[in-house]
Amino acid sequence: KADAKIAIVGSGLIGQFWAMIFAAGEYRVTIFDIYPEQVTKALENIKATLSRYESEGCLRGNSSAADQAALVTGCNDLGECLKGASYVQECVPESVELKQKVFEQMDPFITEEMVVATSSSCICVSQFVGNLKHKHRTLVAHPVNPPYFIPLVEIVPGPWTPVEVTAKARALLEQVGQSPVTLSREVAGFALNRIQYSIINECWNMYKDGLLTAEDIDRVMTDGLGPRYAFIGPLETMHLNADGIVDYCKRYAQGAYNVCSTFKPPPILYDVPTAEQMLQEIQKTIPVEKVPERRRWRDERLSALAALKKRI
Ligand code: NAD
């Protein structure tokens, strides 16, 4: 492992997180970016962030922040970045055209031992690797922001990705402390966003219907479903809330069906007047200019939750 190398292509927010996660797992990490000055900035940011995590007690891995930072190097040549890597994580902006271009540029350097993952949030890998020689070595490994504290990674194979490649990615991600799930095939939104959008849809419709304030809708999650879901998922919840999941269905299916039949079709999401109205309300506690501060607040809490989940 000490010699194993990970290549990160694109060194923005997500690329930097991946670099820190693999360095905590004691991998050598090389980051590449189209802008050399961005590589320099990313390396500085990684060093400072690891040092901050160390002083806040939330650094991952068994080595010091300085040792982890020393494992991360920068590179201004894509071929050089991929050379000798066993795993590549692409983290360029979310655009089919750009990802297609970057994967075409990577193709000559991909070997039969490499796994090449895209961090893509929504775009399936088949949308941009169809013409590549090494398309069978590619897949989606979609992290959740901030991946350092939210461990889920969605692995989504392309139609030509063999199970060994998917399994290799999963084993590596587990080994560095992430929590991967594997989809059997491509589907729009993967799993997390399919679930997330169904939640947002209902929140949006309830708000539009004037049923609850924005604050109270969010509280249903933060003080209701959220704490539960941090430990048990919706299916296990059904299992535990009755004498097993079959008993739950017998007891509650009709009630659930009655509720579900009142659901409205998906809203035209983010219609501006409703969004503006929500903004007026949310601004009272979190003005837009305070969003960066609130993000730091979020990360501190997610870090504490991750530590708690490890401890208990
Ligand atoms: P970002 O804009 O912060 O970083 C993208 C980086 O890619 C930049 O440093 C940019 O200079 C670099 N880049 C642009 N063109 C390039 C090229 N041709 N070759 C190499 N590097 C290039 O974006 P991000 O938020 O880190 O997102 C990266 C990917 O991760 C996207 O696909 C995004 O959907 C996905 N993702 C983002 C989040 C999130 O919350 N930000 C969460 C999960 C997944």
UniProtKB/TrEMBL annotation:
Residues 5-183 form the 3-hydroxyacyl-CoA dehydrogenase NAD binding domain. Keywords: Oxidoreductase. One of its GO terms (molecular function) is NAD+ binding. It comes from the Eukaryota. Residues 189-257 form the 3-hydroxyacyl-CoA dehydrogenase C-terminal domain. GO terms for biological process: fatty acid metabolic process. Belongs to the 3-hydroxyacyl-CoA dehydrogenase family. This is Lambda-crystallin-like protein. The lineage of its organism: Eukaryota, Metazoa, Spiralia, Lophotrochozoa, Mollusca. The chain holds residues 5 to 316 of 388 of the full protein.
